[in-house]
Each structure stands twice: as C-alpha cells, then as structure tokens.
UniProtKB/TrEMBL annotation:
The keyword Cell cycle does not apply. This is Putative D-amino acid oxidase. It comes from Chlorogloeopsis fritschii PCC 6912. Residues 5-363 form the FAD dependent oxidoreductase domain. One of its GO terms (molecular function) is oxidoreductase activity. Keywords: Oxidoreductase. The keyword Aminoacyl-tRNA synthetase does not apply. Pfam families: DAO (PF01266).
C-alpha cells in the first residue's frame, strides 16, 4: 500500500489550503474529507476578510501577509474566488454609547470609523434606524469561500495531490477510516469542529473546542444589501472564552455550559444570495440535535430588528460546527507525545490568516525556521494539551 509524506484530515478551508501548500513543497499528500457535499463551516461562512483586525504585532503581520496572498491567489489557483472590498457596518444597539463602542476597537490595526444613525443608513439603506444608536465602518475584504476552497482543491490535485472521501476513525496505527487504512509519515488534523472528538477517539486530549453555528441561506434575491452587516459587540468571542474555562466539561457529551447567543448579521454574495446569522450554541456533543424551527424563528426575529426587509426572505436554516481555542489563537503544530501527528485548527479569524499560515507551516515542516509557527507550537500547544 502506498505511503504518503502527509495525510491532511479535513478539506474545509484550512485543510484545502494546507494540503495545497504541502504539495507545492514537493511532498506526497493525501487529502481526506468525510462530506462529499462539503456542508462544513466554510460552506456557510460569511466570507469576510478582516485584514484590519490585527491587535498584536504577530496578528497584524499575518493580516498584512494575508492581503498580499489574496492579491495573487486567483491567478495562482487559476480560478475566480470573487475577491472584492466591501464596507463593513458594525451596528451599535440603542442601549450602548457609540463612543464606548468605538473605543473598544481602538487597539485594532485600522480602527473603524464611528458613524451617526443618518450616516449609517445612508451607507446601508436597509438598516432600521430605530434599532441603532450608530455604527462603525471599515473597509473589509470578501471572497466566495466555497469557490476558494474548490480552487485550492483543484490546484492541489493538478499539482499531484490525491483526495479521498471517507470518514477517519483513528490516527494512531495509520489513518484508519470506515473503508481502509492509509499510511503516512505525518498526519495533520484540519477537521475544524470535529478535531477535538477525532483526536479524543485516538486517545489524544487537546484543548480545541467547537460551537454549533446556525444560519439561514437564501437563494438569489432582488434586494440589494450594499454592505456586510454585523454587530459591534460580537458576543461569540465571550461565549468561546466562557465555555472553554473548564476543559473537563467537554469530556462528557451533551453538556451545555453556557447559554446560546445570536450575533445578528447579513452578507450578500455576488450571485444575489444571502447568509443571515448567526446563532452560536455550545453543546459538547458534536452530533447534538438542534431545534431548527425554534432557531429559525429566533434568527428571523433578530435579523428583522436590524434589517427588516430581510427577515421573511425565502431561505433554509443550516447548522455546522465551528472550531475555536480558549484564547482566539489558532492551535498549530506538533502534538507532544505523538510523533508525526500535527494539528492546524481552532481559527477565530480563519479566512484572513489561514493562507499565510498554511504557507508558513509548509515551509516550517520543510526545514525552514519560522518564528510564528515555532512560537505557537511552544506556547499554544503546551497550554492546550491536557
């Protein structure tokens, strides 16, 4: 049986980008994906590129590298990823002081500009002026995430990579799947929200977590949403921090350590379709059942308060898992005590920094020094392994 240099588990955005960068370095690479329909977090992503959002020297550097990478990515992958620039509107609720909301972004690389209610509604006429005290705005990148993943995969295959659709069950004695066992010198887990349970099934404890994310996807519509709308106070990050304080809670399926939250926002793609979201729910069982009708009502009501004309558009409720770490930094590198097993997961701002980090990771495993990867391997993973 063929032995590969690398097996990449998961063909979402992170896995596809990393598999492509590894095969570019001359490695033999097998990419494994369990879902033939790609109904993962990438599929239901807003597609936003927050190049402006770096808050530390390292994250600012990666955002800058992300800009440079995206500027050539369509040409390199020989595909249209629908890269564009949008106005991001961060809505401020009526019970919040706009100046305090603006001050909370002062440490970002490009702090958003504060807008009055009139200015916000001029920029986005679909806004309900009665629901906001103002808004923040900044230029925001955007791609079609599905087309970008497919572009990465097709470029990976053209470069000599191989791909199989199968579910991985164990990683310790070869990569065991539901159909066969594959062998490689190295395995990297890029399975997003499934990463924790996959590693746990192999007896490997690691502090990477997941939310159950819920959103509504519409078909192409005539309504024109000019901007990407999100709340200025994103509750998701607080939810992630609170729910990951006690790792032991995650060892029992079915726990719900914190209440779900809803960050009401919307984005329209170039074909006219919309994503409306999103609910983030912490249930420690990745296969947990969610009440779709109740969730959809909650989503439509909350969207309707901010963007009334979008509330009753035809659309379908969807659910996926979204990975995160306890400190909003990705979990990257070798897993101590398990030779040849790596992780590349837990991204809170994935679309911006995955392309440069995938490139850096591939260079690093090829023998090149990389301060960022080495730093995260030593700090994030030592803190992240039980």
């Amino acid at each position: 049986m063929k032995t590969y240099d690398w097996i990449v588990v998961g063909a979402g955005f992170t896995g596809a980008a990393l598999a492509y960068e590894l095969v570019k370095k001359g490695f033999s690479v097998l990419l494994l994906e369990q879902d033939t329909n790609f109904h993962n977090a990438t599929h239901y992503s807003y597609g936003g590129l927050a190049f402006w959002s770096g808050t530390t020297p390292v994250t600012r550097q990666l955002c800058d590298e992300g800009i440079a990478r995206y500027q050539i990515l369509s040409q390199e992958l020989n595909a249209n990823i629908e890269l564009r620039e949008l106005d991001l509107l961060l809505t401020i609720p009526t019970d919040t002081d706009p100046k305090i909301a603006a001050a909370s972004y002062a440490h970002f690389a490009t702090p958003p500009k504060l807008l009055s209610v009139d200015e916000a509604c001029e920029m986005e006429p679909l806004l309900n002026r009665e629901a906001i005290a103002g808004a923040l705005t900044v230029k925001h990148g955007h791609i079609n995430p599905q087309k970008t993943v497919q572009a990465y995969i097709q470029a990976f295959l053209r470069a000599g990579g191989e791909m199989e659709f199968t579910q991985v069950q164990n990683l310790l004695t070869g990569v065991q799947t539901t159909t066969t066992t594959y062998h490689s010198a190295n395995v990297v887990v890029c399975a997003g929200g499934f990463s924790r349970d996959l590693l746990k099934a192999s007896g490997i404890p690691i502090k990477v977590y997941f939310t159950h994310a819920e959103m509504i996807e519409t078909p192409p519509v005539e309504i024109n949403l000019r901007t990407l709308v999100m709340p200025a106070n994103l509750q998701r990050f607080q939810l992630e921090a609170e729910s990951s304080k006690v790792d032991e809670v995650w060892n029992e399926p079915g726990n719900e350590p914190v209440a779900p939250i809803l960050d009401a926002g919307a984005i329209q793609f170039l074909d006219g379709s919309l994503r409306l979201g999103q609910i983030s729910r912490i249930i420690t069982n990745p296969s947990a059942e969610v009440d779709s009708k109740k969730s959809e009502r909650w989503l439509r009501q909350s969207i309707g308060e901010i963007l009334p004309e979008l509330a009753n558009l035809p659309g379908t409720w969807h659910h996926c898992l979204v990975a995160f770490s306890s400190d909003r930094l990705p979990v990257i590198g070798t897993i101590p005590g398990y030779q040849g097993i790596y992780i590349f997961s837990g991204f809170s701002n994935p679309l911006v920094i995955v392309p440069p980090l995938a490139q850096r990771f591939a260079n690093w495993v090829s023998g090149q020094e990389d301060e960022i990867i080495s730093q995260w391997c030593s700090s994030v993973l030592i803190g992240g392994i039980s």
